[in-house]
Each structure stands twice: as structure tokens, then as C-alpha cells.
Amino acid sequence: MSELTARQRLDTPRVSRRRFSFHVDAEAVGRFSESIARFLGTGRYLAWQTIIVIVWISLNLFAVRLRWDPYPFILLNLAFSTQAAYAAPLILLAQNRQENRDRVALEEDRRRAEQTKADTEYLARELAALRLAIGEVPTRDFLRRELEEIHEMLARLQPPNTADADHHPAADGDRPDHNDRRGKK
């Protein structure tokens, strides 16, 4: 049995030989194709193309010495076919890139909408909790009415007799001393 070379053995990785490879930046190609697609969709492009076609046909019909593309205008048709062959894929590439951007924007809008909805629901719950809490908090009018009722009750408990007020020690401003209380024990 012959000895297997490293290339034939499965347990040995292949040594990569540097070959010339053509690397294309997909983003740069996409931007370039979008710029061409945008230009192809303008009125300026249509005007220039119309002018070129008119000049082309006029020169090939009327300038006898400059006829490079006689009447069936085969070269002009080839130019239009080539233009269409490149324009259609460039426009499709630009549309695909726009679709990807739209998808990302839509996902971001959905995320923002979900966050806004969650924030709104949170604020609605907070407002409901505040309304419940405010319902349990006494208002100024409620406190005023309660204080008036207490004042009326106190006024009913105290006799309107002013003679008792003269003999009352607190009414005269006399306060018993602490020593007096101790002596009375």
C-alpha cells in the first residue's frame, strides 16, 4: 500500500495556497447601484437619452459620411439592449436594498410601538392608582366640615356660663406649682 500524501489524508488540513482572489465590497456595489438606479429614474436621464437618440438617428439618416449605424439602427438597438440588461438588475438590487432598509425600519418601529404601548399601560396603571389614592385622601372641604363638627361638639360640652370661668385656675392664668402637688400628698 502506498504512502498517502498530506493532501489525500483526511486528518490533515489542506494548506491554503494564496491565489489571486477578487474581493468585492457588497456595500460599495450596493451604494453604486442605488446611485445609478436613482439616476435612471430621473427626468434628466430621460432628457439626455432622448437627445442622444435624436442626434444618433439624425446623424445616421442625414450625414452621409458619418453613417456608422444605417437605417435599422442595429447598433442603437444593441446599446438599448445592453442598457436594459444592466439597468434592470441594478434597479432590482436597489429595490432589494431599500426593502432591507424598510424591514429594519419596520422592526424598529414595531419595537418603539411596543415600548410606547408598555409605557402607556404603565402610566394608565399609575393614574388609576393615583385616582384610588386620591379618593382616600381627605379634601379640604371634608376636613373643614369635620373641624366644624368637632368645634360644635366642644361648644355643646362647655357651658356658656362665664362665672365658672372666673373661678377656674387655668382661666386666671394661675398654674399650680409642682411643689404644691407634692405637698398635698
TrEMBL record:
List all Basic and acidic residues biased stretches.
Answer: 164-185
UniProt keyword annotations, A-Z: Membrane, Transmembrane, Transmembrane helix
Chain residue ranges for the region called Disordered: 154-185
Q: What InterPro entries does the entry give?
A: DUF1003
Q: Which regions span the lipid bilayer? A: 45-64, 70-93
Source organism, top-level taxon: Bacteria
- Show the Pfam families listed in the entry: DUF1003 (PF06210)
Q: Which PANTHER family match?
A: INTEGRAL MEMBRANE PROTEIN-RELATED (PTHR41386), MEMBRANE PROTEIN (PTHR41386:SF1)
* Protein name listed in UniProt: Uncharacterized protein
What phylogenetic lineage does the species belong to?
Bacteria, Bacillati, Actinomycetota, Actinomycetes, Mycobacteriales
